[in-house]
Task: structure prediction
Amino acid sequence: MKTGRASYPVIRKYLCPERLVFETLTAFGQDRDLARESIAFWAGAVGDSNVASLTHLILPRGRGVDRQSYCAGLSSAEMARVSGLLDPPGRVLLAQVHSHPGEPFHSRTDDLFSWRSPGFLSIVIPNYGDVTPESFRRWGFHRCDSASLYRPLSDRSAKRLVALVKNLEVTVHEC
Result:
């Protein structure tokens, strides 16, 4: 497996099951109805060809989850519960997914408080997630660079990097 800084793999493609998109939007439903941001994580494995399979949806649900109209965040204890669901190298965090009230940009708050590891994806869903699975290509895709800064991906780059697939099983975890 080709690696970048430390031992983080240089992922050249993410395989995202359509079911993962559907389950994420479904999970965001209650927060959407209350006009507040939601947050979740996508996990999976990175294969020898540096292709990541996104196969797990992790939904933080504990007392350490803070959901507001313009912010969603996790306490350290809540993030520890999320981490407890991981089992490297078979299940590692690969992306965070959260909603915004309007456009799918990466806010200053997102930049300051997002998980920062080179190659990690931060995906922003517009309109509190009040979108259809078919709108996936209009979500905001951002990738953490080697300086631990998030950079927006162009539509073309996002489409090349994240492929929608039908044939991967998805497991949903609430913690």
